[in-house]
Design brief:
With about 550 residues, this protein is of the alpha+beta class. The chain has 23 helices and 12 strands. The strands form 3 sheets. It has a 5-stranded mixed beta sheet with strand order 7-8-9-11-12. A 4-stranded mixed beta sheet has the order 1-2-4-3. Strands 6-5-10 form a 3-stranded antiparallel beta sheet. Strand 11 and strand 12 form a beta hairpin.
Length: about 550
């Protein structure tokens, strides 16, 4: 692995100039490395972060990848990671014209990383630098504690999909729960009622005095009100500051709760484990937005590599080569999902709708097919609109808002069903629906959506049990993972762990749907499911299960 040569770097700098001219925004510094396919195989298990901590599962994945490569050799074009500066990796046999296309794709990814608000918590630090520091910490602990380090890593990774990603973002973009200042809330809610314990009549007088200050002095009214309080209660400022400092926020996820409340981890001889859990949690939080914006991110990059490449004079003579490569990347499959293809076509469609004013109520209320086809107000702000989408949405909101019947019809999209042909004893795939609502739901069902697990403190009082409650959303937990996840959690918690969730009681075939011609219906879709609430208990490394009434 080595940095690209000066000739190729000049190509990249030229691409940056053209990309910025079209509105893309990204930092000046970037690092580009030339790698072989085998280098990529070794980096892939570490999510392309060269400095990520060492773990035996990574080695297994490398061996598995090499085995697959021997049978099915592939030639990936590029990989880019969201670091400061952004780092990208390129295959060592790319010609210059292909690098032009790839560089535009990479720059669009970097623009997405550095401007989409779902990545906001990754903007203020260099993850590769922190990962290197974490790697050294874990290596040192491994030399001191041996294989126990890998046990803690494995137990932590068993629950690292439960990190409070949205709560982490909420700390960066807090929604104000009150229009009043902290000192005002503290004065009326705590200071007067808890510390001074004044009478109700005096409390109402203070409210009246506050309102009078606002009426008389406007924006300066609160300062005038507290000037009098500081004179009467000199201790108020210090008490208010102390209260604000001590006011704790609840743990954002299960891992943080265990870190703060596990008596086992807080024993002096076990505190070294907390460093490892913090590393696993931080790593999971870093990669969460990439999982949740896959279609948007790849669609955005594909939109721009096509848009910018076709305007670049450096591709003269390679138009056919580009068409061949681009078709392979952005072809829309009849069955399955290509995030590059779907995302790119959605951005093109949204830009056209915004240019023609079709995102307005005037267009949405039209029912006539010809009127909808000819509707065009020449609004002309399509490019501006897709930049706003790139900044503010994730895959769920993107698909939920913009997959409509016009888009489904335009690209001849459909939901695929499967049925058993009983005469030939083979599975057949068929067009199940062309309805936009069903197609949208199919896409949404395929998005990354980890389970939501909360902690019930009341039920967990007995035997210092960690009582977990799965917020059921019509998707059961994968039973194969429950035992290992609870065993690892029991070890980190240092006591029994219980998990309350829902499981399938029985499937009742629906009688209100006709059987499909040629065979049996899709059993999953054509059955009503009855659920039951169950509790799994992990105690002394033994798993038990009971049914709740």
């Amino acid at each position: 692995m080595e940095l690209i040569n000066q000739h190729t770097k000049n190509i990249m700098e030229g691409c940056k100039e053209r990309a910025r001219a079209q509105g893309l925004r990204f930092e000046d510094e970037t690092l580009e490395y030339v790698v072989t396919n085998r280098d990529l195989l070794e980096l892939s298990p570490k999510v392309m972060i060269p400095t990520l901590y060492d773990y035996w599962v990574h080695d297994v994945e490398v061996l598995k990848g090499k085995g697959k490569y021997e049978l099915y050799p592939t030639n990936p074009y590029e990989t880019v990671i969201n670091t400061r500066p952004a780092i990208s990796f390129y295959n060592d046999n790319n010609p210059d014209w292909l690098n032009v296309m790839i560089f535009y794709h990479v720059l669009a990814h970097i623009d997405f990383f550095q401007n989409n608000l779902y990545f906001r918590h990754t903007w203020d630090y260099d993850f590769t630098g922190e990962a290197l520091s974490d790697k050294r910490v874990i290596a040192k602990l491994r030399s001191e504690h041996g294989h126990w380090v890998d046990y803690v890593i494995e137990f932590s990774r068993g629950i690292d999909n439960l990190v409070g990603y949205y709560r982490e973002l909420d700390q960066l973009f807090p929604v104000p729960t009150t229009q009043h200042s902290h000192r005002l809330d503290y004065y009326f809610d705590v200071f007067l009622q808890t510390i001074k314990k004044i009478k109700t009549s005096e409390y109402m007088k203070e409210i009246e005095r506050y309102n009078q200050c606002l009426a008389e002095q406007g924006e300066l009214g609160e300062d005038a009100f507290f000037a009098e309080i500081d004179r009467r209660h000199p201790e108020f400022k210090a008490l208010c500051a102390k209260y604000k400092e001590k006011k704790s926020t609840p743990p954002r996820d299960l891992m943080q709760y265990i870190l703060e409340n596990s008596e086992f981890l807080n024993k002096e001889e076990n505190k070294w484990m907390k460093s490892i859990i913090e590393v696993i949690r931080k790593t999971s939080l870093f990669f969460q937005p990439q999982i949740r914006t896959k279609i948007m991110n790849e669609g955005w990059a594909s939109y721009w590599h096509e848009t910018l490449f076709l305007k670049d004079d450096r591709i003269n003579g390679h138009e056919v080569d580009f068409a061949r490569v681009n078709a392979g990347v952005t072809a829309m499959p009849r069955v399955g999902l290509n995030p590059y293809a779907l995302g790119m076509r959605m951005f093109y469609a949204i830009e056209e709708w915004a240019d023609k004013g079709r995102l307005t109520w005037d267009f949405q209320r039209l029912k006539d097919v010809r009127q909808r086809k000819d509707f065009d107000t020449a609004a002309g702000h399509g490019r501006e609109f897709i930049f706003a989408i790139r900044e503010n949405l994730c895959d769920f909101s993107f698909l939920n808002q913009f997959i409509n019947q016009d888009f489904v019809n335009q690209h001849d999209l459909f939901v695929v069903g499967r049925r058993l042909n009983e005469s030939k004893m083979v599975w057949e795939y068929y067009v199940k629906s062309r309805n936009a609502n069903e197609y949208r739901q199919m896409l949404l069902d395929g998005l990354y959506h980890p389970p939501i697990v909360t902690i019930d403190h009341e039920k967990g009082k007995k035997d210092a049990t960690l009582y977990l409650v799965h917020l059921f959303e019509s998707k059961p937990l994968v039973k194969d993972f429950i035992a290992n996840a609870l065993m690892g959690t029991e070890y980190l918690w240092g006591g029994p762990v219980e998990l309350e969730t829902n499981e399938v009681l029985q499937r009742v075939p629906r009688t209100d749907r006709p059987r499909h011609l040629g065979g049996a219906t899709d059993s999953e879709a054509d059955a009503q499911i009855k659920w039951q609430r169950v509790v799994y208990t992990m105690k002394n490394r033994k798993l038990s299960r009971r049914i709740l009434a």
